[in-house]
């Protein structure tokens, strides 16, 4: 009998209540790219009928978390990933479902080498948020770290 390991999306939905609250949908999740969609849900609309800025922030942060778990999941026995700081820019009105695409800003091997040296590496994740028509509605830059368990 074989057991199936949970996907990154399933793991995040099980451990991060906001992922479940917003009904985030995980597409591709790899060490190179993570794609997460926020469905169009009136309960999370703002005053102009699109997704609330806080929901879009959570979408982007969740996409960044998905790529971090995909890239560094094999390090979780010795380190915990933590978001250090984030900056988001809202570029255009977002209406309907929006999708966040995250990309890691440093090679995984370089980050792990710093961890192996006993350091607390920091690394950027860039996230682009798009409407269904492909227009960029926002961009996030988030810095993550891996803190060694001591």
TrEMBL record:
Quote the CDD domains the UniProt record gives. PaaI_thioesterase
What Gene3D superfamilies has UniProt attached to this entry?
Hotdog Thioesterase
- Which species is this UniProt entry from? Streptomyces fildesensis
Q: What is this protein called?
A: DUF4442 domain-containing protein
